[in-house]
């Protein structure tokens, strides 16, 4: 006797559809994925999808929101910035967190890239509601370090984009473009190196107050190199 299929609640069915749609959108893009394909993969009638998500756009955006909420990236960034650690430790930790998350799951990057490459109108919404806020959180910290006299007086948002750009591009090279097949790097080494390179262009030159976070970072680097 055949087993009776499990009955899902409305919330469970919605989550199931999101999980299937996320996988297909990340592999094939928005334009390359049809709601019929999603319905077949989720083993539901296509009408069920539209009961939960009136349009394909609504489904795509729900997928993005679902992924953002599960990643909790903004809160993790704030925790790192408020940890009270030295600049090198803070920025290396942020970089390592991004690299480790990307190594485990490239879904968010793939969704973002597909959105941009397909010139889909949701790509701008994606940027405004997720990426831009992440940049601004980091820019706020940089702005504070500038006021404290520890960082050079540069545009905080451009500085934030510069740091995150190094980290994210490295992860794309390794995880999306196949770089790790030819060159393998430890995430700890990469995160520390990128943080050092970025801070070399951000820290104010000349004598610094003893006990300041940037002075502590300089002392850490000297001790590592045997100075």
Notes on the structure:
The protein has 227 residues and is mostly helical. Helices cover 70% and strands 0% of the residues. It contains 11 helices and no strands. The radius of gyration is 22 Å and the shape is elongated.
Which labels suit this protein?
single chain, 2 domains, 0% strand, 227 residues, disordered C terminus, elongated, Arc Repressor Mutant, subunit A, 11 helices, mainly alpha, Tetracycline Repressor, domain 2
What is the CATH architecture term of the largest domain?
Orthogonal Bundle
Instruction: State the shape.
Output: elongated
Please tell me the overall pLDDT.
Answer: 85
Secondary structure: number of strands: 0
Beta content comes to under 5%
Report the top-level CATH class of the largest domain: Mainly Alpha
CA radius of gyration is: 22 Å
CATH topology of the largest domain: Tetracycline Repressor, domain 2
Could you state the oligomeric state of the chains shown? Answer: single chain
> For the record, what is the CATH homologous superfamily label of the largest domain?
Tetracycline Repressor, domain 2
Name the helicity range. over 70%
Query: Which blocks of ≥5 consecutive residues have pLDDT under 50?
Result: 1-5, 206-210, 221-227
Summarize the structure.
By secondary structure, the chain is mainly alpha-helical. It folds into two domains: 10-66, Orthogonal Bundle (Arc Repressor Mutant, subunit A), CATH 1.10.10; 72-224, Orthogonal Bundle (Tetracycline Repressor, domain 2), CATH 1.10.357.
Strand and helix layout:
Elements: H1 10-28, H2 35-42, H3 46-52, H4 56-71, H5 73-81, H6 87-104, H7 107-117, H8 122-147, H9 156-175, H10 187-200, H11 213-224
Helix pairs in contact: 1-2, 1-4, 1-7, 5-8, 6-9, 6-10, 8-9, 9-10
């Amino acid at each position: 006797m055949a087993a009776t299929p499990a009955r899902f609640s409305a919330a469970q069915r919605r989550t199931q559809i999101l999980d299937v749609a996320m996988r297909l959108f990340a592999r094939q893009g928005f334009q390359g994925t049809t709601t019929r394909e999603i319905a077949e993969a989720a083993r539901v009638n296509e009408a069920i999808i539209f009961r939960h998500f009136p349009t394909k756009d609504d489904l795509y955006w729900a997928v993005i929101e679902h992924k953002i909420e599960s990643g909790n990236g903004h809160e993790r960034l704030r925790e790192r910035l408020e940890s009270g650690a030295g600049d090198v430790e803070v920025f290396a930790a942020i970089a390592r967190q991004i690299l480790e998350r990307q190594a485990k799951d490239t879904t968010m990057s793939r969704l973002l890239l597909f959105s941009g490459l397909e010139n889909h109108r949701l790509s701008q919404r994606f940027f405004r509601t997720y990426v831009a806020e992440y940049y601004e959180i980091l820019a706020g910290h940089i702005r504070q370090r500038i006021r404290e006299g520890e960082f050079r007086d540069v545009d905080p948002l451009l500085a934030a984009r510069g740091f995150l750009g190094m980290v994210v591009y490295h992860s794309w090279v390794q995880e999306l473009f196949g770089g790790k097949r030819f060159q393998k790097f430890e995430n700890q080494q990469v995160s520390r190196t990128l943080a050092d390179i970025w801070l070399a262009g951000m820290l104010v030159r000349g004598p610094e107050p003893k006990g300041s976070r940037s002075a502590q970072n300089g002392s850490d680097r000297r001790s590592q190199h045997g100075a």
